[in-house]
Amino acid sequence: MSSRESRASSISQDEINSLISKLQNLLPAESDQRALTTASASEALKEICRYIKWLQREVDDLSATISQLVASSDSIGVDADILRRLLQQ
């Protein structure tokens, strides 16, 4: 048995439920928390994964927008250093 299998088999159902509950609490308020509370662990994890994928797309979109702003900062008269400092805050 691999260490991963050993570790996985040592996690109790209560621990799994607790971890899923903690993940559900990270979802935005718009999510139907009541439905997730009664949903199976599998459905809850699917919803959490959908939300994480959405967040990843948002980060990608924002990164692209920021890159465009930095690239065009000279042509629009924005100081790139000021823009970078604002983004690091």
Automatic annotation (TrEMBL):
Domain of life: Eukaryota
Localization per record: Nucleus
A single BP term in Gene Ontology: regulation of DNA-templated transcription
Keyword check for Magnesium: no
Main location: nucleus
Pfam families for this protein: bHLH_ILI
Keyword GTP-binding: no
GO cellular component: nucleus
GO molecular function per UniProt: protein dimerization activity
Bilayer-crossing regions: none
Keyword tags: Growth regulation, Nucleus, Transcription, Transcription regulation
PANTHER family: DNA BINDING PROTEIN
Protein known as: Myc-type, basic helix-loop-helix (BHLH) domain
Annotated source species: Dillenia turbinata
